[in-house]
Design goal:
Blueprint: E1 2-6, E2 12-16, E3 28-37, H1 42-45, E4 62-68, E5 80-82, H2 93-97, E6 122-125, H3 128-131, E7 133-134, H4 143-149, H5 155-165, E8 173-177, H6 181-192, E9 197-201, H7 205-213, E10 218-220, H8 224-234, E11 239-244, H9 249-258, E12 259-267, H10 278-284, E13 288-291, H11 296-308, E14 318-323, H12 327-335, E15 341-345
Parallel strand pairs: 8-9, 8-11, 9-10, 11-12, 12-13, 14-15
Antiparallel strand pairs: 1-2, 3-4, 3-6, 3-15, 4-5, 5-7
Helix pairs in contact: 5-6, 5-11, 6-7, 8-9, 9-10
The structure holds zinc ion.
Length: about 350
């Protein structure tokens, strides 16, 4: 089968590799039809992370079940399914608490995990019953709906997690830091939870326009101290609900500066820190600081319901589409910030 493979900084190639097979009775093998390139994939593309050369890539799969392990009970060949970026058993202590990313049997997709990569024609998925969600049959071939569902594999679930962790509720003011796909989805998630005012903070005018389309009432494009001052002014001295969607130290610093004493910060960007000075600021303001890798499986069904009833649409973040052979070009476009997020249509060559 064809798959994207990592070879180092700026070097992703599409090659022929072995087909995946059923290895355990709880596995399925899917034919991938749609997947994405993610902002977090850029951490290894830019060699901040350094996975093993020759590893597959990608963690956002949607596709059709082709093979079913003998212990799988909820899925059949031909079902269209969507997978969170990590697998889960659905039964252990942590799955029952809704923290699926800490599942005792959890595995992550390549290149940082133990599984194959989703940027490929086929993928083995373990713990299928506890991991996968079926797409209702009547939408199976509806490309418009499938494009709206695809971000639920990661970025829409992650944006929602930021809003939940920041305790966003009806009538609130939420400040979202970061105008990548996760930040934009956090804007949509805050709107979905009833926030009245949503302030999007980012550095790219074109993306802040998309933020408005997804529900932002105000945008701030200035940087550093200037951005902090603008947000403090807009919120009359600080916000009670801050969603940090980048993971960079500068973003966490900004979050700690603009949060109101006693306020909430929901953080979902993978932290890449030199220092943790921002913790001091939070300490002296008695800030609630909550977050982590989003337990997407916990939110998938409710977000899918809203997409299917037409009240949630995260698809504006997918502003470039490539086929499998176009994946290197897709990485490049995200690296150069030409694309917010790239959708890969597999099998459309
Ligand atoms: Zn579990």
């Amino acid at each position: 089968m064809k798959s994207a493979v990592y070879y180092g900084e700026g070097d992703i190639r599409v090659e022929d590799i072995e087909d995946p097979e059923i290895e355990n009775p709880e596995d399925v093998v899917i034919r991938v039809t749609h997947t994405c390139i993610c902002g977090s994939d850029l951490w290894y593309y830019r060699e901040y992370d350094d996975p093993e050369e020759g590893s597959q890539t990608g963690h956002e799969p949607m596709g059709i079940v082709e093979e079913v392990g003998e212990d799988v009970t909820s899925l059949e060949e031909g079902d269209r399914v969507i997978s969170p970026f990590s697998t889960s058993c659905g039964e252990c202590e942590f799955c029952r608490k809704g923290i699926y990313t800490s599942c005792k049997k959890s595995e992550f997709y390549s290149p940082n995990g133990t599984l194959g990569g989703a940027q490929a024609e086929k993928l083995r998925i373990p713990q299928a019953d506890g991991t996968l969600v079926k797409v209702p049959e009547r939408y199976e071939d509806n490309e418009e709906v499938l494009k709206k569902l695809l971000p639920l594999t990661d970025v829409m679930g992650t944006g929602h997690h930021a809003a939940v962790c920041a305790n966003v509720e009806e009538g609130d003011t939420a400040v979202v830091i970061g105008d990548g796909a996760v930040g934009l989805c956090a804007v949509a998630a805050s709107k979905r939870l009833g926030a009245e005012r949503i302030i999007a903070v980012g550095h790219h005018e074109d993306r802040l326009e998309v933020a408005k389309e997804m529900g932002a009432t105000d945008v701030v494009s200035s940087k550093g101290e200037e951005a902090v001052e603008e947000v403090m002014e807009l919120t009359n001295g600080g916000a009670n609900h801050v969603l940090e969607c980048v993971g960079a130290e500068s973003a966490l610093n900004t979050a700690a500066q603009i949060v109101r004493p006693g306020g909430n910060i929901g953080y979902v960007g993978v932290p890449h820190l030199e220092s943790a000075d921002f913790v001091n600021q939070m300490f002296f303001k008695n800030v609630r600081f909550e977050g982590g890798p989003a337990p997407v499986r916990n939110y998938l069904e409710e977000l899918m319901e809203d997409v299917l009833q037409g009240t949630l649409d995260p698809s504006p973040v997918l502003n470039k589409v490539v086929d499998l052979e176009g994946i290197p070009e897709g990485y490049d476009a995200m690296d150069n910030r030409e694309a917010i997020k790239v959708m890969v249509k597999v099998g459309e060559e």
